[in-house]
TrEMBL record:
Pfam families for the chain: BPD_transp_2 (PF02653)
Bilayer topology annotation: Multi-pass membrane protein
Bilayer-spanning residue ranges: 37-58
Organism superkingdom: Bacteria
The keyword Membrane belongs to this UniProt entry's keyword annotation: yes
Protein name: DUF1467 family protein
Record's keyword terms, sorted: Cell membrane, Membrane, Transmembrane, Transmembrane helix
Main location (coarse class): membrane
Keyword Cell membrane: yes
Location in the cell: Cell membrane
């Protein structure tokens, strides 16, 4: 299941329009706003996806703490712009 989540996330960020919008908003928010992208909606979607990733991690391990962050290298790589 974890591999499917990684593949879906990779497709979402690289192949879908949302990934291009996330890249544009994270690169230059003002330019993205001037070009007509819904910056607020993109930010909300990113926060919701991050919360879902946290819930998936919680369901897998049973706890979430600051000490568990080094084990999330694949998530950090996917979160980088």
């Amino acid at each position: 299941m974890f591999a499917w989540i990684i593949l879906a996330t990779a497709w979402l960020l690289n192949g879908a329009a949302l990934g291009k919008r996330v890249d544009a908003v994270s690169g230059n928010e003002r330019a993205a706003r001037y070009s007509g992208l819904p910056v607020h909606c993109v930010r909300v979607i990113c926060f919701v996806l991050t919360a879902l990733a946290g819930f998936l991690f919680l369901s897998r391990t049973g706890y979430v703490s600051d000490a568990s962050a080094p084990d999330l290298l694949p998530w950090r790589v996917l979160a980088m712009p």
